[in-house]
Amino acid sequence: MKILVINTGSSSIKYKLFDMDRHQVLASGLAEKIGETSGELKHAVFDAGGQTRDLKRPGFIPDHNAGLIRIVDLLLDPEWGVIARKSDIAAVGHRVVHGGETFQAPTRIDEAVLNAVRKHTPLAPLHNPPNLTGINVALSIFPDAPQVAVFDTAFHQTMPPRAFLYALPYELYEREGVRRYGFHGTSHAYVAEIFARHVNRPLEGLDLITIHLGNGASMAALKNGKCVDTTMGMTPLEGLVMGTRCGDTDPALPFFLADHLGMSLKEIDGLLNKASGLKGICGANDMREVLHKRDAGDPRAQTALDIYCYRIKKYIGAYYAVLGRLDGLVFTAGIGENSPEIRMRCCDGLDRLGIKVDPVKNTGARNGILDIGCRDQAVTILVVPTDEEFKIAQETIRVLESSYGNTG
Ligand code: AMP
Questions:
Q1: CB atoms within 10 A of CB 125
Q2: Site to substitute for ligand 1 among 278, 287, 295, most atoms within 8 A of C-beta
Q3: How far is it, in rounded angstroms, from Cα 355 to Cα 366?
Q4: Does 166 map to a domain?
Q5: Residue 182 in domain
Q6: Where among 117, 151, 185 does a domain terminate?
Q7: Are residues 135 and 207 in the same domain?
Q8: Ligand 1 shell residues, CB under 6 Å
Q9: Tell me: the pLDDT tens digits for 204-260?
Q10: How far from 8 is each of 59, 108, 130, 189, 202, CA to CA, in Å?
């Protein structure tokens, strides 16, 4: 069964086509800078041995519809040999950022689902509108293929009120949906499942802390496999220090910035989301560059790393207290998968909690999952490569199977 996974941004469409029977990626790519003269389509196809052929096709892509049509044309191009006809694509899975409280699980898309996603736009004004555009374009190009929405927020819907409510007037929650939602849910869910499979135990019996450290970063606490807390909040700004986002700060900070520096709301938004985090402290948001600067003796880069790791460690302690015990810690995403130093520093001094990284295993060659915990410790520490697109494809099949089951 071939599943196309689409992740639509305001000026981009990312896609991956999976052959789920063979557990293989057939093609992947990105249409970017849609609507700009410097638009470009990047496309790669993979054979069974994982060998890649790729192309870059610069050129104006007027809108998302034109972008997806070009992607489908490439998939159909006999020279690239990915699919023979559009109907080879059995279903389309869409990443949708915000499902609010309406969506607790991936959902087959119909008119009511589209309306509900639209209704949640005020909660994710930058993300839900392009996600909807992607769905509408895909519906028009693949009218016969079932389409499924997989929400970033859904995995965290099991959080109890004590974790998801802010101590604000309750009416703001009731009327406006002001609460903590959490994001990166697909990634947290995926790596938790892989952890359970790796230790050969049911996820429902595991207490875990999952740590997603990419450009955006978040952690989740899982009790018996279900999310009970996460670091991101109503928006992805809360929690950990990120590439350009500040994470936790004093909520009164914007008043100071407005009153004393005369900054507008838009400027403050830009400052906290785009000019803070690692970038704000040391001028670089890419962790490789931060490490490079630190190695070259830049004290600000050292400070940025200190703050970054300190915040993660603080949340490991907090989530240990929330869970009361811990089976596993999972590192994932660009930094979590690739930086032994960050992993080591986040766990430094936590031996009393049964958390200890083995320095040799931690720097071992990674080919898939890496088990980096010391053998005599209670907590298993794994590095698990995340694969949000594959998880979306899996969920798409699961939703279709259950909907076919329901309708007989
Ligand atoms: P992602 O958003 O998951 O693609 O992660 C992007 C982040 O991963 C960027 O900050 C990269 O600098 C970081 N990253 C990728 N490779 C490495 C590496 N070898 N060491 C440290 N950070 C890395």
A1: 11
A2: 287
A3: 20
A4: no
A5: no
A6: 151
A7: no
A8: 214-215, 243, 286-288, 291, 333-335, 338-339
A9: 999 999 999 999 999 999 999 999 999 999 999 999 999 999 999 999 999 999 999
A10: 19, 17, 6, 21, 34
**Residue 278 CA: which ligand 1 atom is closest?**
10
Task: List the beta strands (DSSP E) in 66-156.
Answer: 89-96, 107-108, 147-151
> d(Cα 86, Cα 182) in Å, to the nearest integer?
35
* Count of CA atoms in the C-beta half-sphere (13 A) of 35: 8
Reply yes or no on whether the pLDDT at 350 is more than 90. yes
Q: How far is CA 294 from CA 217, 273, 288, 341, 345, in A?
A: 21, 23, 10, 12, 15
User: How many structural domains are present in the chain?
Assistant: 2
Residue 358 sits in a domain whose CATH number is 3.30.420.40
* pTM of the entire predicted model: 0.94
- One domain for residues 262 and 144: no
- Give the range of the structural domain holding residue 333, as residue numbers without chain letter: 200-388
Q: Does 192 reside within a domain?
A: no
**How would you classify residue 371: left for phi > 0, otherwise alpha for psi between -120 and 50, otherwise beta?**
beta
User: Is 152 designated active site?
Assistant: yes
The answer on 350 and 206 residing in a single domain is: yes
